[in-house]
Q: What sequence folds into this?
């Protein structure tokens, strides 16, 4: 019997190839989308959950309570020492100086660590679980040793054995490879390409300050401190003890500004205040979208199945006349549903094999998703197959099972009220319109971020990072740059503006008794900085390049926060601190226009610019784009002569700024893709509904044509209900999306305003797509011969 069910189902599917293809395509895309989003969410929710002590591990972070609360994920080595010896309740502590940018000489070949080198000890690997392919963590306690990730070892040595090899940092500091670590799993925020022994810090970084290991206030984002606590009830006590130690070091008045706390390991990946890369709310939104798309596809299948069964009513009547029971018909149609959904699942799995690598190459370059195993994909597909087959097969099978024989033989298949099916299509279009509007808003905002005025000229500015002690070759560099006609200006500076990481701090202004209750951002540069970046000088003069007599430029925002309205009033005032020269105060000699030192998520910060040649890490070059290729070739030729053990890197300033908005660009692409899929599947739903409407109104259309109805009047008759659906969907979707996108835009200090045309454009797009979908069946019905539809009357 079962074999007969499947044989009959297969013949039925082959007879109706057109609808079978629509069924499989719509469901297959919906299933692939849902599974992809499921594994995307699962991948991010599983970040660092695989460590055995994951539930007991915390990171030490703090909030700096000034006029505006600033969040800092970094710590200091002195705090690490204190936690190990002076704070009860801590089971284990581990420290890492991460994100180090080093030049490595491997058998005469130069490699960059790309800010993926870290200094640590075996304590790190006691706290976290890494799979050592060769060697062990204990050897990392010895000076001048390094452990490599497997992919890094292959990049450095190819197929040659990495163990025991020697790597030279900056061409002169040897590191012996004592271990190779597996790259898997990839769902972690705690991975570097190479781990250098903590005992090698002073050797590899000879310019590091002597108080690095003892200064409680030597807090930096690169210094990551983790602890394990068996009893979570001790957290409050540990935080209190840490605060007491902070007050003891800084003094009660300053110490109270620092609020240290323990951040659970499971929250690190999602807490954007402390560098988290993904918001959980985004994951839930994507999950809702994935389930909605699958629901749309399922509802479409049900609608289209009903149409198919209506066309097969004579077949159903014949089966009943020949003795077929309602239960047999029920199981026959359930079997057809199982076949269709099964084929759709196979299509979905095939699409996923294509989608995962493409998504990692285009969307998730920095955080590629681990491709699930075939067993995981098959297991989830089996669940989806079972649920959809049952849900999508029961209602059509029930409707056909109760059909009277007389009505069936007359092709009089009553499907009841169309309100329910119209409601399904309405829900589909509401979701589609929400996604279309969201896509339009996101595209407009991302374009705004990449093109808005940030207070300086970012066009044709080439950034060249400088190696350590590069200023020893300053004269040669300046001579080279001065002789290039393609260069209009250049500046040696700490870093270019619009970067996530920056210096700064509180400061003592003029004759005031106390430090300001707010922090300013700071950078170091030469006198050509503001002319290279076209930052207007509002009042006063430019700084002189003299470290012994510090001079500063401040922006208008800082001037106003100091309580001045006139630029001339602040000139000549003294300033001490602010991340600048702490030894002696400097003089404010000029006021510049405001410019953004970070991304446009944040408002303009008070900013100070000073001169310190020893801290220059970048040269910003204003260059004619037509002469760029020739200039780069010349620079590549000269670079090894100046810095023989370093790698030349460069990047345009506008490209660096675009990198600040990678997350928004990914969100835009995800929503755009979801919107496209939702529109496509919703169009299939409209196709099903118009087909059903034509089927039920065949005789009405025939009568109208006999009475002289024109093609346009019949098109209007069949299309007006769907136009109403689109209009109602737009009215419902608009306020929902207005609220949601307003909340999203609140994350940006600078953003577009929602405009009426965005909603109208979305409505017009949905209307055009709906009319194109509906018109095909409507025209086909309007051109049909009325004799065929009225033959039985």
A:
């Amino acid at each position: 019997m079962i074999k007969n069910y499947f044989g009959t189902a297969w013949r039925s599917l082959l007879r109706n190839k057109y609808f079978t293809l629509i069924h499989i395509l719509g469901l297959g895309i919906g299933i692939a989308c849902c599974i992809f989003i499921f594994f995307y969410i699962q991948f991010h929710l599983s970040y660092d959950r695989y460590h055995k002590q994951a539930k007991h591990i915390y990171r030490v972070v703090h909030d700096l309570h000034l006029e505006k609360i600033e969040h800092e994920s970094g710590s200091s080595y002195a705090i690490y020492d204190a936690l190990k010896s002076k704070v009860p309740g801590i089971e284990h502590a581990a420290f890492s100086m991460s994100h180090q940018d080093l030049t490595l000489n491997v058998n005469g070949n130069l490699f960059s660590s790309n800010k993926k080198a870290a200094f640590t000890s075996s304590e790190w690997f006691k706290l976290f679980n890494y799979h050592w392919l060769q060697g062990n963590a204990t050897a990392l306690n010895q000076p001048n040793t390094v452990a490599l990730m497997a992919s890094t070892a292959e990049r450095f040595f190819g197929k040659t054995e990495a163990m025991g090899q020697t790597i030279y940092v900056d061409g002169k500091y040897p590191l012996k490879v004592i271990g190779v670590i597996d790259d898997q799993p990839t769902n972690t925020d705690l991975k570097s390409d190479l781990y250098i022994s903590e005992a090698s810090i002073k050797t590899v970084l000879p310019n590091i300050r002597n108080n690095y290991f003892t200064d409680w206030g030597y807090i930096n984002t690169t210094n990551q401190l983790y602890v394990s606590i068996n009893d979570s009830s001790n957290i409050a006590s540990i935080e209190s003890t840490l605060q007491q130690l902070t007050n003891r070091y800084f003094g009660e008045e300053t110490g109270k500004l620092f609020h240290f706390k323990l951040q659970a390991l499971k929250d690190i990946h999602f807490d954007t205040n402390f560098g988290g890369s993904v918001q959980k709310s985004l994951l839930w939104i994507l999950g809702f979208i994935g389930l909605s798309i699958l629901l749309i596809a399922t509802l479409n299948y049900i609608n289209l199945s009903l149409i198919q069964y209506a066309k097969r009513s004579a077949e159903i009547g014949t089966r009943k006349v020949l003795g077929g029971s309602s239960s047999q018909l029920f199981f026959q149609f359930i079997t057809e549903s199982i076949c269709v959904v099964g084929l759709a699942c196979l299509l979905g799995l095939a699409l996923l094999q294509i989608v995962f690598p493409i998504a990692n190459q285009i969307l998730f370059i920095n955080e590629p998703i681990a491709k699930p195993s075939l067993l995981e994909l098959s297991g989830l597909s089996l669940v989806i197959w079972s649920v959809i087959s049952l849900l999508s097969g029961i209602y059509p099978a029930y409707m056909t099972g109760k059909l009277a024989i007389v009505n069936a033989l007359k092709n009089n298949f009553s499907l009841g009220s169309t309100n329910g099916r119209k409601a399904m299509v309405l829900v589909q279009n509401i979701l589609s319109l929400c996604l279309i509007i969201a896509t339009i808003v996101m595209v407009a905002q991302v374009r705004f971020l990449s093109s808005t005025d940030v207070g300086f000229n970012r066009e044709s500015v080439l950034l060249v990072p400088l190696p350590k002690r590069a200023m020893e070759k300053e004269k040669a560099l300046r001579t080279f740059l001065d002789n290039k006609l393609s260069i209009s200006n250049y500046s040696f500076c700490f870093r270019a503006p619009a970067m996530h990481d920056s210096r700064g701090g509180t400061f003592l202004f003029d004759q005031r008794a106390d430090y300001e209750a707010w922090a300013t951002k700071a950078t170091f540069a030469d006198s050509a900085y503001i002319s290279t970046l076209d930052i207007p000088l509002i009042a006063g003069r430019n700084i002189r390049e003299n470290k012994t007599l510090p001079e500063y430029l401040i922006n208008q925002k800082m001037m106003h926060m100091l309580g001045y309205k006139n630029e001339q009033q602040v000139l000549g005032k003294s300033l001490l601190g602010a991340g600048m020269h702490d030894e002696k105060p400097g003089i404010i000699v000029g006021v510049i226009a405001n410019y953004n030192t970070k991304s446009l998520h944040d408002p303009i910060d008070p900013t100070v610019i000073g001169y310190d040649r020893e801290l220059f890490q970048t040269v910003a070059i204003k260059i004619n784009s037509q002469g760029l290729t020739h200039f780069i070739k010349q620079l590549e030729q000269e670079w090894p002569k100046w810095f023989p053990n370093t790698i030349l890197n460069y990047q345009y300033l506008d490209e660096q700024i675009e990198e600040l908005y990678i997350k928004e660009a990914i969100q835009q692409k995800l929503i755009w893709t979801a919107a496209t899929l939702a529109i496509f599947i919703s169009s299939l739903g409209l196709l099903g509904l118009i087909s059903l409407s034509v089927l039920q109104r065949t005789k009405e259309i025939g009568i109208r044509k006999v009475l002289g109805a024109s093609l346009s009047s019949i098109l209007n008759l069949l299309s007006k209900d769907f136009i109403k659906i689109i209009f109602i969907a737009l009215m419902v979707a608009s306020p929902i999306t207005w609220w949601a996108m307003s909340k999203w835009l609140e994350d940006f200090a600078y953003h577009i305003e929602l405009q009426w045309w965005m909603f109208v454009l979305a409505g017009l797009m949905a209307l055009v797509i709906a009319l194109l979908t509906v018109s095909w069946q409507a025209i086909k019905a309007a051109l049909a011969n009325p004799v065929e539809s009225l033959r039985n009357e």
